[in-house]
Amino acid sequence: MNSFRTRKNHRRRAVLVAGGAGFLGSNLCDRLVAEGARVICLDNMQTGSYENLGGLVREPRFSVVEQDVCDPLPANLEVEAVYNLACAASPPRYQADPVHTMMTSVVGTRHLLDHCERHGARFLQASTSEIYGDPKQHPQAEDYWGNVNPTGPRACYDEGKRAAETLCFDYLRGRSVDVRVARIFNTYGPRMRPDDGRIVSNLICQALAGEPLTIYGTGEQTRSFCYVDDMIEGLARLMRAKTTPDGPVNLGNPAEFTIVELADMVLDLIETSSRLVYEPLPTDDPQRRRPDIARADALLGWRPTTPLAEGLPPTIDWFAGRRAAASSEARRARPSRVEPVLQSTA
Ligand code: NAD
Ligand code: UDP
Fold first, then answer.
1. Distance (Å, whole) CA 121 – CA 204
2. Considering 83, 157, 188, 227, which one is annotated as catalytic?
């Protein structure tokens, strides 16, 4: 355990949320503003959106800096804490520009850590269960070093996040920055993008549209799904913990499901004609994932309280609401009278 004295400042400084316009980031910004914090969201809007920020943009205690973390940060951003959530989390999204993904984790994390060092601010890194790759140890505890392919299509994300963790612990040991690292396992809930490409959003959107539910491989691979509210609670507790943990902390829901079990739950909850369709398993797709959360429990008194069966319905409602809004917008945009095509006189 380490203890740090953060710089005293009579005027309360802001909390910076890098990646604050994304799925987890916007839910975190909502919570921090509701608690009375001054919040700066820094985001390049790659997978985030102003829509996620909703009413926050009218809040006087909330502001947005639209920029990439790979670019040098504005030096005058006075902050007391930085949450680094900047990085696309969905495999199709982060693989679309793998070099940028890697740089986001390495160069971006370095910029934010340097900023924390200058301002005496506390830093929380959103790391990932991908650190464990296709794990040979089950469930995964933090002392497991993982089984990651360093050159495959997932490496830009996995190795980027691993390098970011290395930077974090070097800044903790050598630069006296108060750093906390959360290893986040698959998290779902309102504000995931319909085109995110991950399993929960894909299955729900496909079922709502009456399309086939795509199962990659046999569907016997497992994941552990954490509801967004539980995750935000875990991140906030880790940031606020009085003592700095010496190492990373797993945050996730230890209940483990096969992908087919998840698909069956979605089919039970949505009235649909959809059926399962089997497609090839992506390269390096991990077979099993389940967090050992004993450390989070001991250090933070945290464990998730929302089982999958309770988290899926509000998530489905949210996607259904988006579909309804999109189709009424499309109806409004349709012209009431179609003009005849003009004959060219040329
Ligand atoms: P997301 O894609 O919705 O959010 C990421 C946000 O970061 C987006 O708003 C995006 O525009 C922004 N961003 C990406 N690259 C950036 C850059 N170079 N500069 C500035 N902004 C940038 O993803 P999410 O699910 O909210 O994940 C948030 C964080 O949590 C990510 O770091 C991710 O790696 C981590 N994480 C998430 C999960 C999960 O299941 N959701 C699991 C493990 C780890
Ligand atoms: N998956 C699937 N169908 C989909 C999307 C994903 O079967 O439409 C599988 C994917 O191959 C993986 C699991 O579901 O085995 C979880 O994938 P996701 O992209 O949600 O997250 P990650 O692999 O990063 O945990």
1. 39
2. 157
